[in-house]
Specification:
This protein is 30% helix and 23% strand. It is an alpha+beta fold and 448 residues long. α2 runs parallel beside α4, α2 runs parallel beside α11 and α11 packs across α12.
């Protein structure tokens, strides 16, 4: 009987199969695939954090430390996001941060994972972040992508993931989107913005690389950027690369020392790439990796201090500066930056400039677009989704305009935002409230 049914469906151009308990049908006429999904609930938590980058690890640690049963879901095979899979190797705007950020810096220093307060060894960073999360009691799930969100009315009640384990559902009282691109919020149908308000263009992306075979002493006075931006050394490095007969796509290439014989290189810009388009991301990554190899091979051909230079590794993910900006209860603007805005529910103080990496290939590499930043604060309300209850954001996907985002997007601020979101989510989950019902002064008492 079943065989006759399959033959009949095949004649109609529709084939059925079962994968991980799901019935999938292909309609040859309409060229569509329909699915009847039977997704099992894996576990229920107080707080689920989606995205294990700088914001995500801070959110998960703080939620767990404050008594919430917490799960951290990450796409890649380690925690740290741009710090580790992206090999960023440098932490920006961390100096005035306490709490988790200060703990990370202290642990890096004690573990000999860095030569400066902001420059670190990404491999050492992986272990540090994983151990901090495990010590806090966070359940870590790697190799897992969030693909759908389930709501009951306005409230987010569960998420759906895909992994080698198949399709799985996870329940929680509160969720925190720390994916960087606002993937969870978008799947929950939150409103969002992307790119410059006039052109829609987004900041360029960069693929980081780790190199060896160059001695720090040989490049310190001419090519090494160090922790403080040195425009002349960047210019010197660009001129050196141009001896090869081409210019780097990032016109102010940056060389940062991690150890005496290990350095990070940022010499690549990918323009016009959407962080929410997988094919564009794929093409950009392939192009950038080829360019980085070309630069390293070319420098080695120059001999001298470059004769032993080797490419150790490029990032497993390209560095994304800009994706979705999710609409929250407060929308941070460039006027807030210019006025040095302060808020009663401030969770983070930002001192970084409006760092807009070029939207198109130019001769500068980045611009502030005339925005002069005074130290300003980020309110808790920018971390709470406007369109969905039970959902918070932390990191570069919070609620703000194109110009504000260019300032708060750096990782020192992401950690502080994650810490605040984790505490508020824990309080909300344990008291059966929504995040927007939790007063920031209540959370501040916990953080003291």
């Amino acid at each position: 009987m079943e065989r006759r049914r399959i033959i009949k469906l095949g004649a109609l151009g529709i084939l059925s199969s079962s994968i991980f308990g799901n019935n999938i049908a292909f309609d040859n006429k309409s060229k569509t695939v329909s699915e009847v999904l039977n997704t099992s609930i894996v576990e229920s938590y107080d707080v689920i954090v989606c995205g294990g980058g700088p914001a995500g690890i801070a959110a998960a640690i703080c939620a767990a430390r404050n008594g919430a049963k917490t799960c951290l879901i990450e796409l890649y095979g380690c925690l740290g996001g741009i710090w580790t899979t992206g090999l960023l190797s440098n932490i920006i705007d961390y100096q005035n941060k306490t709490g988790i950020m200060a703990e990370i810096i202290d642990t890096l220093n004690r573990s000999n994972a860095q030569i400066h307060a902001s420059t670190y060894d990404s491999e050492a960073m992986k272990l540090i972040l994983e151990q901090m999360c495990l010590d806090a009691g966070v359940h870590i799930r790697l190799y897992t992508r969030v693909v759908a969100a389930v709501k009951k009315g306005r409230r987010l009640v569960s998420i759906i993931t895909e992994s080698n384990s198949g399709r799985e559902a996870w329940k929680a009282s509160c969720f925190i989107d720390t994916t960087g691109n606002g993937d969870l919020a978008a799947r929950a149908n939150c409103n969002f913005e992307v790119g410059n308000p006039k052109s829609g263009k987004t900041q360029s992306m960069s693929l980081m690389a780790i190199i060896s075979g160059v001695n720090q002493k040989d490049v310190a006075g001419t090519f090494l950027d160090g922790c403080i931006s040195n425009p002349q050394n960047k210019e010197n490095l660009r001129v050196e690369i141009e001896k090869l007969g081409f210019s780097p796509s990032y016109v102010i290439p940056t060389l940062i020392a991690i150890r005496s014989d290990l350095m990070a290189l940022m010499a690549n810009h990918e323009y016009g790439v959407s962080a929410i388009d997988a094919q564009q991301m794929s093409d950009a990554t392939l192009h950038s990796r080829a360019e980085v190899n070309k630069i390293i091979d070319g420098l080695r051909s120059l001999g001298g201090i470059w004769k032993d230079i080797r490419l150790v590794v490029t990032g497993s993910q390209i560095g994304i500066r800009e994706g979705r900006r999710i609409k929250g209860l407060y929308y941070l603007t460039k006027e807030d930056l210019q006025n040095g805005a302060k808020f009663d529910d401030a969770v983070c103080r930002v001192t970084y400039m409006a760092d807009i990496h070029s939207l198109d290939h130019d001769t500068k590499g980045y611009t502030t677009d005339g925005v002069v930043v005074k130290a300003y604060e980020i309110p808790l309300r920018s971390l709470i989704a406007k369109d969905v209850d039970g959902l918070m954001m932390a990191g570069r996907c919070i609620s703000g305009d194109f110009f504000a985002h260019a300032s708060y997007r750096v990782t020192g601020n992401a950690v502080a935002m994650g810490e605040a979101a984790g505490v508020v989510a824990a309080i909300a989950a344990k008291s059966n409230r929504m995040p927007h019902d939790v007063e920031w002064k209540e959370a501040k008492e916990v953080l003291k």
